[in-house]
Amino acid sequence: MHTLEAQGTQNPRKLAISALERIEKGGYSNIIISDLLKKNRIEDKDRALFSAIVKGVTERRITLDHIIASLSSFPLSKIDTDALMVLRIGIYQLLYMDSVPKYAAVNECVSLSRKRSKGFVNAVLRNFIRSGCRYELPDDPHAGMSVEYSVPVPLLEKFISVFGEEKTRAIFEKTLEKRYTDVCVNTLKADVDSFAAELKKSGYHVERGALSQYCLKTDAPYYFLEDHFIGEFLAMDEASQLCGASLGVRAGDLFLDTCSAPGSKSYVAAMSMNNTGRIVSSDLHSSKLSLIASGADRLGIKIIETREADARDFFPDFERAFDCVLCDVPCSGLGVIGGKPEIKYKNVKELSALPDIQYAILCTSSRYVKAGGTLVYSTCTVLPEENELNVQKFLSANSEFSLEPFRVGNDTCDGMITLTPDVHGTDGFFIAKLKRKS
Predict the structure, then answer these.
(1) Is residue 58 within 8 Å of residue 23, measured between CB atoms?
(2) 184, 243, 327, 380: which is the annotated catalytic residue?
(3) How are the residues of the chain apportioned to helix, strand and coil, as percentages rounded to the nearest 5?
């Protein structure tokens, strides 16, 4: 196996193998990409190539393995892990990256291979080129969709049972499309229009988001944004920004974020509150609290205090103390597979315990809301059992709360909305806004 996390690695494809090995062991692609780019010297053009390969191979793993299996004289289980990683990278470049010449993709992959695998890797890649880089889908409809959209069959069938086949296709098709980076402009330090003008002046495409007043969508790479707009933005999907804006908090309010890490929605709340009032950002994991605090410091936010807490546990000193409470609960994450594609390979059966945990957090969080105050429940998934069904169950048992309409771009929803990539151009996301009777 390759171990290439030492300082000074230059080859983006070698570095990609290291990243993909870590993702296979359960790591998150966005964290691993960021970590390896920080630890290794790599040119700007190669940074983009490295990131595209790692995310793309992870995103298209089922498709790539289907193609490799069809071209190989060995079953996938008999192919060395190193050779399989290299073949995935090679097939991905040949099929999806027009900017990489075919001969370069093959030669680079052969050079990356161990001596015993070079001939095999070369033969498979050249066979794919000779086929015109085409492949056949399985005859079975669900197996065919699984390969087409690189989604495991159990997850695919779960979505079909909820949304039907047509919308399931639309969701996964949109998820695979390349999207601009969503930027949340920190209005405590910057103006949205001025930020956009600076990006345009630097030659990048930029447009306003349709749902969030803070949102810009741009093709500027993240490292450029980090270098030129220190403390003036968050990389944050527009759906999450809308969640922060839906809170309706104002200057001087008391706001509790019960599952706050990494802190982004607390930061949006601070912007809405104009850095005036009090925000308590709590989280189960103490190791994440320092990251929330350092992020607030970088953004110039002064009103956040952190607290280690299990959101299911009740704290008497919080009872009916807050104008607004957010429970952005732990969830399956199936709405954010566009940015974290490794999530879709989770075992669907392992998600069954989540609704009960989420419901417990919602019930406990409700006890902290003042009379006339607001409770927002949100997830980054699209499954009803984690979303609408939990809220409906809560409302049935808590008559003092009712749905509170809120703005979604130019429209108003009745208090609950599920955002999906095919309709809203965002991550999959759920928001419910509830109000306690005065």
Answers:
(1) yes
(2) 380
(3) 50, 15, 35
CA 329, chain centre distance (Å): 15
Enter the tokens of residue 250: 């104002």
| DSSP secondary structure string for all residues of 368-397 | TEEEEEEEEEEES---GGGTHHHHHHHHHH
Q: Which token pair is 175? A: 């998820």
Give the C-alpha separation, 371 to 364, whole Å. Answer: 15
CA 288 to chain centre: 18
Q: How many CB atoms lie within 10 A of CB 278?
A: 16
CB atoms within 10 A of CB 58: 26
The C-alpha atoms of residue 24 and residue 35 are separated, in whole angstroms, by 16
CA max distance for the chain: 74
Tell me, yes or no, if the pTM score tops 0.90: yes
Q: Which amino acid is at 294?
A: S
From residue 105, give the alpha-carbon distance in Å to each of 62, 81, 84, 100, 128: 20, 19, 15, 7, 12
**Dist. CA 252–CA 88, nearest whole Å:** 53
Q: Which helix (H) or strand (E) is 131 found in, with range?
A: none
Q: Strands of 301-365 (E only): list them.
A: 304-308, 322-328
Instruction: Tell me whether residue 380 is one of the annotated catalytic residues.
Output: yes
**Dihedral, 167, 173, 179, 182 alpha carbons, nearest 10:** 30
Cβ partners under 8 Å of residue 399, min gap 6:
none
For 192, the token pair is 């949205």
Could you list the pLDDT tens digit for every one of the 438 residues in the chain? 444 444 444 688 999 999 999 999 888 898 898 889 888 888 877 888 899 999 999 999 999 999 999 999 889 999 999 999 999 999 999 999 988 889 888 999 999 999 999 999 999 999 999 999 999 999 999 999 999 999 999 999 999 999 999 999 999 999 999 888 999 999 999 999 999 999 999 999 999 999 999 999 999 988 899 899 999 999 999 999 999 999 999 999 999 999 999 999 999 999 999 999 999 999 998 889 999 999 999 999 999 999 999 999 999 999 999 999 999 999 999 999 999 999 999 988 888 999 999 999 999 999 999 999 999 999 999 999 999 999 999 999 999 999 999 999 989 999 999 999 999 999 999 999 999 998
Tally of helices (H runs) and strands (E runs) in the chain: 17, 14
End-to-end CA distance of the chain: 63
